[in-house]
Amino acid sequence: MTGPDWFSYYLKRNSRLSIRCPEATSIAWCVNLNKNTVSSFFEKLKEVLDRLGIGPEDVWNMDETGVPTTQKPDKVVARKGYKQIGRMTSQGRGTLVAAAVSAHGNSIPAFFIFPRINYRNQFLNNPLPGSAGACNPSGWLKEPNVSQFIKHFIKFTKCSRDKPVL
């Protein structure tokens, strides 16, 4: 019979193993993700890319990420028994940054979303050339900010009806 430390020692002996939390995967995703579905998708994708003459420089991926704008307080030494040790910090909610990168390795300047009602130019203090910003009370990329980002994207990728991108 194994003791309470057996699993702990087992993990130490097998350092390539770790305890992980699995990501939730929907049943529909699992059922539809099979060789036929994936093959069909890539065949159709190839047809579209060939028909439109789209190469790696025209295949773009856009993503957004939150950037904290407040400092995380350092640890401090305090007397035992005291639970609330305060340190002053601003109440910033962070900034959302939207970026796009092509399969060829090109990128467009960042697009910032600030959690405010009105945008001011000083929000972008000494930005990288071409960077742009907008505001949304929630701080998320929502309409009309999506339209603003698409205009920003078009400006730097120079895509059009005659030169489409994916």
From TrEMBL:
Report the superkingdom from the record.
Eukaryota
Could you identify this protein by its name? DDE-1 domain-containing protein
Lineage of the species this protein comes from: Eukaryota, Metazoa, Ecdysozoa, Arthropoda, Hexapoda
